[in-house]
Amino acid sequence: FSFFNVIRFKNNQCDGTGGQKGICYSRKECASLGGIASGNCARNWGTCCVIQKTCGTTANLNCTYFVNAGFPGVFSGDGRCNIGVSKCNSGICQLRIDFLDFVLAQPNGEGYCTTDQFEITGSAYDVPNICGENSGQHVYVDFVDNNTPIQLSVRVGSTTGVSRRWNIRICQIGCDSSERAPAGALMYYRELRGTVKSFNYGSTVTAIGTRQIANLNYAVVVRPGIGYCSIQWSQQTGDPYSFTVSGDTDAVAVTDLGTSDIAENGAICTKDFIVIPNPQQNQIPLNTDRFCGNALIQTTFFPFFGLIRFKNVQCTGTNGQYGTCFSRQQCSNLAGISSGSCARNWGTCCVIQRTCGSSTNLNCTYFTNPGFPGMYTGSGQCNIMVSKCNSNICQLRIDFLAFTLSGPNPTGFCVNDYLAVTGGASLVPRICGENADEHVYVDFSADSTPIQLSIRINPAVSANRIWNIKLTQIECTNPQRAPTGCLMYYTGTEGTVKSFNYSPSVSAASPIGTRQIANTNYGVCVQMVAGYCSIEWTQNPSDPYSFTVSGNTGGVDPSLLGTAYVAESGAVCTTDFIVIPNPYQNSTSLNTDRFCGNALVQTTTFSKPFVLTVVTDNTELRPINADIANRGFCLNYEQLPC
């Protein structure tokens, strides 16, 4: 008897026998796609089909090789060579483009790609045009929400004497993939150590001019490893030209290249430079974040029940609070509060409220003081332990719906009352004072250690104390998950960002001290929206104290607060400051990224991702240049269309 089996398998990415990436297809499907069979997959039922395309083609597969006509030989034509890339399915958000082999004509003497250029259009964010030698490089490109295809174009001039060729691997990345790069990251590295090169980097030049491509502004992002708290950047050993980004490199003796004598940083870095926020060299903090010249000193940067079954997802109760959809019996067993219906009325939206000495493993919990909504009159320590509700949870968002403790002491430290968050993979500073409507994000550790919130109270200090803290667990695949290293994360095109304990009123501490909490270093991130290319930061126009971060605020004429007369930036910002990378004020590029003092002039940056770095030092009352009566900041941001 003869028989025939229908074998089905997923068209997943696979590794071919030649090391190339392919897609697992039947042999017939591979042949119909014009692919190259390269080894077996799906337990030998399929073949690893390597898809290779050239000029004037399209692709909608999860891995495609875009090569020049005649590859592996050199390209002998001119004009334009295009490929259009569409999503292979609705779950795709990004492309990773690897330049396995890439040689075009060099930029001109001013660094512009005028003869040949590679360009990417149709993506959610701008990608620079590149040329020259870029084998081994990569870029990440986001699709726009309307599924517009992304176009890759190689434009070749008529100049002879150039051995042009390209072999570009285009891999599609799912929205829920752990390999997806953060929005705004042009290059993304996930290893604990590696090498990062600028486009067209090489230790030789073919003519007077530069290999460095002009008019670029992009971010290179490295994913923090669990248990690693800083990153160290250094020049490549054995290559004296491995950091030559500005100045007359040819005029420098080769023996001097890469030495500290010719390393440059700070305000003189106005044209070509890199930014490493809040850096240290030789264990000494620097008062600048820009580096240029012909050397980089080693630099460190400190980032159901019954027959009816339904999912226990988050829901909104009738009182506006968030809960978890449970059966009524389950909600009662959990000592929750039923607040409306869910799951087509089969379940109840169960609002979970916990207080001191409790634990939770639910996707939304409210941690309140005993007696809430009344004031807390107790003392000592009040804790809650938060465990993951399932294995797909990566992050905890902590919203301070109500939060009042005693404020910091005159030196800015939370020593009497404070909230401490421990056990997570990311650091959270001690928080005290008034922080209603603030929020922070904390990553769970790789071993799923519970995150603990502890509120400590000093009964010797008289103060009104109250808290209602919403604890929301965020899935690893959730688009609302904050990028690693972001303590605060905002997702709107506009909004308001405040420092901890900000208020226009002065601290009542004696001597008059600061509302601003000392010894912090954190990132405030804003999710980039497709079609928006820059972000603008401004003070709250109705609050003259909305940027008072350093100096003697009490000694400033109130009529001058918030004006350019008391705005400070650059090398004078050494104690408390914010960092806005590569900024513009009044359409003029600045030579610094740090801002402090008692005013912030309207500031715009095109640098991506959009991050505001906040730094405060370890004391506010210095014998000289004391930081007195600082409130902190309350800034408005607005993303600007391209």
TrEMBL record:
<dbReference type="InterPro" id="IPR035914">
    <property type="entry name" value="Sperma_CUB_dom_sf"/>
</dbReference>
<dbReference type="Pfam" id="PF26080">
    <property type="entry name" value="CUB_animal"/>
</dbReference>
<keyword id="KW-1015">Disulfide bond</keyword>
<protein>
    <recommendedName>
        <fullName>CUB domain-containing protein</fullName>
    </recommendedName>
</protein>
<dbReference type="InterPro" id="IPR058698">
    <property type="entry name" value="CUB_metazoa"/>
</dbReference>
<dbReference type="InterPro" id="IPR000859">
    <property type="entry name" value="CUB_dom"/>
</dbReference>
<feature type="domain" description="CUB">
    <location>
        <begin position="356"/>
        <end position="474"/>
    </location>
</feature>
